[in-house]
Amino acid sequence: MAAAGARWNHVWVGTETGILKGVNLQRKQAANFTAAGQPRREEAVSALCWGAGGETQILVGCADRTVRYFSTEEGRFQGQKHCPGGEGTFRGLAQVDGTLITCVESGIIQVWHNDKEASFDPLLELSVGPGVCRMRQDPAHPHMVATGGKENALKVWDLQGSEEPVFRAKNVRNDWLDLRVPIWDQDIQFLPGSQKLVTCTGYHQVRVYDPASPQRRPVLEATYGEYPLTAMTLTPGANSVIVGNTHGQLAEIDLRQGRLLGCLKGLAGSVRGLQCHPSKPLLASCGLDRVLRVHRIRNPRGLEHKVYLKSQLNCLLLSGRDNWEDEPQEPQEAKKALPEDTETDELWASLEAAAKRKLPDLEPTQGALQTRRRKKKRPGSTSP
Question: Secondary structure of the chain: what % helix, strand, coil (to 5)?
Fold first, then answer.
């Protein structure tokens, strides 16, 4: 697919091998984009977000602590910015007022000048506690972000205010044995039109918090399955969420009553990325089974698209445009060998090696055929 057609991709996926992949579901095509040279696992993509100007730019957070700027209009990377400080991979990226917001696993939130050419010290640095699993920006108030992680309770921060959180969740009460309940918030979402937030945990719980509530504990809690929940997304209308777990199971949970609304045919490995279309009943999912899936929510057909993408998939971005089918017809171009086609994969390498081994000759000899014929004759028959 030509680079000029990158703007028409429906889903963008970040991989464990450091490749940004664009998928056009209408054409059933996938293209790879790398910043330079061959893909490397040291540059694994751990976070994606849209840049300024709608869906014309993607910010790609990599394991080597660089944020790369990809233009969907030109189909190429336009620069990168190194963001040192703290330890671990990016757990969230965001933009606000021309600045870049990053959060790493060790719990350091930094606000940077969004100048990809120059190198500056961060404008702001906050410590939100270690073991962060997710930082999420409030779409209605871009200067507000929420964080949560393992033994790191949900907190809401105002990046234009003080260095203390504006909301700090309180752990639930002790269990029936009077033992402390562990904390492990894996993903966070802001509920539009309210101050409420919803989280999913590594202990298969979905919780709704209301910062206006004085108790600071969940106002609603639901459980699903037996395995850690790893990703979550709001459905159109924001009355329910879809969660995925480490065993590839997908389920829709109602946020008003806390009940299970239904399950979707899930993945074969841990779910790493989920996102619903803002207006269409579509869900994009990816994970360790290397397959991008697009489901139609609450539809008997369920699975709409399934694309194998060779690499383990860490995160995704789903295009929010409504006119998915209104793609201009472009002339067919001659197929070219793209550098990304050289991506290697251990599984395919092992299969190719096995195919090269010389198989034994399975063609039966003439003597063997004659022996079989003799055995099939009835007793007392004479030879021809």
Answer: 10, 40, 50
- Rounded Cα gap, residues 212 and 145, in angstroms: 17
Nearest to 219 by CA among 234, 200, 197, 203: 197
B/e letters for 35-55, b = 16+ CB within 10 Å, e = fewer, are: beeebeeebbbbbbbbbeeeb
- CATH architecture label of 35-271+294-305: 7 Propeller (2.130)
Amino acid at 347: L
Cα–Cα distance measured from residue 91 to residue 103, given in angstroms and rounded to the nearest whole number = 6
Q: Please give the Cα distance from 158 to 141 (Å, whole number).
A: 9
pLDDT of 153 > 50? The answer is yes
Q: What DSSP line would sit under 15-56, residue for residue?
A: ETTS-EEEEETTTTEEEEE-SSSS--GGG-EEEEEE-SSTTS
What distances in angstroms separate CA 242 from CA 106, 285, 312, 345, one per listed residue?
27, 10, 21, 31
Q: What is the pLDDT of residues 333-346, one digit of tens each?
A: 433 333 444 444 55
Q: By three-state DSSP, how is residue 351 classified?
A: helix
Q: What are phi and psi of 101, to 5 degrees?
A: -110, 130
pTM (two decimals): 0.83
List the domain boundaries for the chain. 35-271+294-305
Q: Determine whether 362 is exposed, middle or buried from the number of CB atoms within 10 Å of its CB (0-12, 13-18, 19+).
A: exposed
309-321 mean pLDDT: 92
Which one-letter amino acid corresponds to residue 124?
L
Q: From 21, 17, 13, 7, select the one nearest 338 (Cα to Cα).
A: 21
Q: What is the mean pLDDT of residues 72-92?
A: 92
